[in-house]
DNA sequence: CTCTATTGTGCACCCGTGTGCACAACATAA
DNA sequence: TTATGTTGTGCACACGGGTGCACAATAGAG
């Protein structure tokens, strides 16, 4: 049988509320009594029942983390950042996967609300303003992560996707590529706009046939890239929305008999742990996944403590990571040595 | 303000217990009243407060998942399997990281108990019988995952680590290797015993200098492998406790000027998603991570429903995956074509 | 018509903790 | 002595929902 404050109270011949107050360090309890209560609590191995206290105080010390897929390199690292930070503040974290399906997201949302979570960190599957507005109106502190609508009056922590997409595209352009494909994610738009913007600077229109949409998986990348390499005039470079997609693209490219980077240059996004060990080592855009989660959790803690009058909007700057999977066009060199755009990248970061 | 059953009751002029019963489909409520109550509940957007019902029924519909590190490829996929299965049954999952530190594990354990979880799936940092026994005595249904003490009267789901270690070592031996290093994990012993056993069959004693211990990270693998390649007589093959460690080893091997597999053969364990895309594609042992989590969750559900009289002990069979990172010694071939031990593996699986 | 099932609903109280308020015990000042 | 704080403790009740039991309403049997 679990120990309750009433049992402690009984043994000491006091009322259970006295025990409750003593354990919560209420100033109204005498120092002497407080000590007696605390030491007995320890002796009996008392563990407060957070379900009960959650009911009466409406604070559960639980938060929810809603992401597309915890098994990805990206979100699993984000989750770790969230959990570490939350734990230090005494919170537990519920993990919820949506696969970017709106119904699943709703399901999890309701489940979290029913459980009385104190806050939610969410990477929404649905970016419609009305929908997000509704989430914000639910009365639960929210922090958006990785995805958001900047115009909304809400806290968020994201990577500057636009900058990342822009830097990479600019880099590929500087290598002489002009037919650059971008394998898009269904929800992700920022990187795409960066890509678009860089092309525009070179006077290149976006060719829809070069921007297939895929989910964020290896299989999805393979499928999308397959279409690209089978084109009459395949792109000379393929930029993928993330590293796993690049992995799939890598397979498709090779199965079609093309070499990387000799025939087709390949780039990813995320700088997953494995990226530098691929053959060739993958050129990609680094984003700080753990820090993303850490920062989101910090902000959520502040929101929950009411220490935040205005929403906090944080954009972490991504960094171009040049390895060997992209080559200079019309040149035997595999990759160019520190092109102008890297300098640009550095200035953006600073 | 959140809708409660008392509010619904008031609007209908009935007692709140009638509402409670109607929503829980008690047979004592008339069909007519049940319909009226349910439709009003839907209309008002009633969401049951699981904190409150958890207090009175002692069932929270929450479970805990305690692992070393959710950000690893292995545990993140396990977690996904757990979450998917639990969600279908109406449960939410708390995620807890221990980094294999016993104090952190205890901390999380207490946190979960305080929150009244209905069950716990745990990959314990500490495999001491007395400790595990104590966990089992806490009165909470438990399923061990990935690690356990088979002698204990407890449910578990693991990969047959021994078989995996044995198969891989046998394979390396069949390629002609005799100086085979094994980069061990701190906690993991099964794979090591398999390695030991295979060596014994060839009359080779275990050389402690060839079996450095490391954590399960890339950095750890790099550090451990560095020692190995710097030896006067380096091993001809390095078998790593998992794929990330192999990644680190790969780096160390190359930084020392050795080629893979020409100078040193390299093998991993897990068959992480990225393994086939490495250069050379990594020979490894496949284990089903998602299924591991799925099965553990299924068993926990049965335990929580009291449908399990005896503990369920499940061992999933690993499969040797031969790629190009191991070569035949004294032979120009990179890898041997289907050696006897693969046949052996197949029989073990069946 | 009374007696007895059957069915549906309400009452009281529980789950474990928290909190406003009353009040007892004691000390100090008038 | 009485009036007036302090300080510490207990009481009642709340949080939202669940459950054993009593009992009212209705129906059917004798």
UniProtKB/TrEMBL annotation, chains A, B:
<dbReference type="Pfam" id="PF00356">
    <property type="entry name" value="LacI"/>
</dbReference>
<dbReference type="InterPro" id="IPR010982">
    <property type="entry name" value="Lambda_DNA-bd_dom_sf"/>
</dbReference>
<keyword id="KW-0805">Transcription regulation</keyword>
<keyword id="KW-0678">Repressor</keyword>
<dbReference type="InterPro" id="IPR046335">
    <property type="entry name" value="LacI/GalR-like_sensor"/>
</dbReference>
<protein>
    <recommendedName>
        <fullName>HTH lacI-type domain-containing protein</fullName>
    </recommendedName>
</protein>
<feature type="domain" description="HTH lacI-type">
    <location>
        <begin position="3"/>
        <end position="57"/>
    </location>
</feature>
<keyword id="KW-0238">DNA-binding</keyword>
<dbReference type="InterPro" id="IPR028082">
    <property type="entry name" value="Peripla_BP_I"/>
</dbReference>
<dbReference type="InterPro" id="IPR000843">
    <property type="entry name" value="HTH_LacI"/>
</dbReference>
<dbReference type="GO" id="GO:0003700">
    <property type="term" value="F:DNA-binding transcription factor activity"/>
</dbReference>
<dbReference type="Pfam" id="PF13377">
    <property type="entry name" value="Peripla_BP_3"/>
</dbReference>
<dbReference type="GO" id="GO:0000976">
    <property type="term" value="F:transcription cis-regulatory region binding"/>
</dbReference>
<keyword id="KW-0804">Transcription</keyword>
């Amino acid at each position: 049988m679990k120990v309750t404050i009433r049992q402690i109270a009984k043994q000491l011949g006091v009322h259970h509320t006295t025990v409750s107050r003593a354990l919560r360090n209420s100033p109204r309890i005498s120092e002497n009594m407080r000590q007696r209560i605390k030491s007995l609590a320890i002796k009996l191995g008392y563990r407060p029942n957070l379900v009960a206290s959650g009911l009466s105080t409406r604070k559960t010390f639980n938060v929810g983390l809603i992401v597309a897929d915890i098994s990805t390199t990206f979100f699993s690292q984000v989750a770790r950042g969230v959990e570490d930070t939350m734990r230090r503040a005494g919170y537990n974290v519920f993990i919820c996967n949506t696969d970017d399906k709106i119904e699943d997201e709703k399901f999890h949302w309701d489940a979290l609300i029913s459980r009385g979570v104190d806050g939610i960190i969410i990477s929404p599957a649905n970016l419609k303003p009305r929908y997000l507005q509704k989430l914000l109106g639910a009365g639960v502190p929210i922090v958006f992560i990785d995805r958001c609508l900047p115009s909304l009056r809400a806290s968020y922590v994201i990577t500057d996707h636009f900058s990342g997409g822009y830097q990479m595209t600019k880099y590929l352009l500087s290598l002489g590529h002009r037919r650059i494909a971008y394998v898009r994610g269904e929800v992700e738009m920022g990187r795409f706009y960066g890509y678009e913007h860089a092309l525009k600077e070179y006077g290149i229109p976006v060719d829809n046939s070069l921007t297939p949409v895929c989910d964020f998986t290896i299989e999805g990348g393979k499928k999308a890239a397959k279409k690209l390499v089978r084109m009459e005039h395949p792109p000379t470079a393929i930029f993928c929305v993330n590293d796993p997609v690049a992995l799939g693209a890598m397979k498709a490219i090779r199965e079609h008999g093309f070499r990387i980077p000799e025939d087709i240059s390949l780039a990813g996004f995320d700088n997953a742990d494995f990226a530098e060990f691929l053959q060739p080592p993958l050129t990609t855009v680094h984003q700080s996944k753990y820090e993303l989660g850490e920062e989101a959790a910090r902000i959520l803690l502040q929101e929950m403590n009411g220490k935040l009058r205005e929403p906090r909007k944080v954009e972490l700057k991504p960094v171009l990571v040049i390895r060997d999977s992209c080559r200079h066009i019309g040149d035997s060199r595999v990759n160019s040595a520190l092109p102008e755009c890297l300098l640009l990248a550095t200035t953006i970061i600073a």
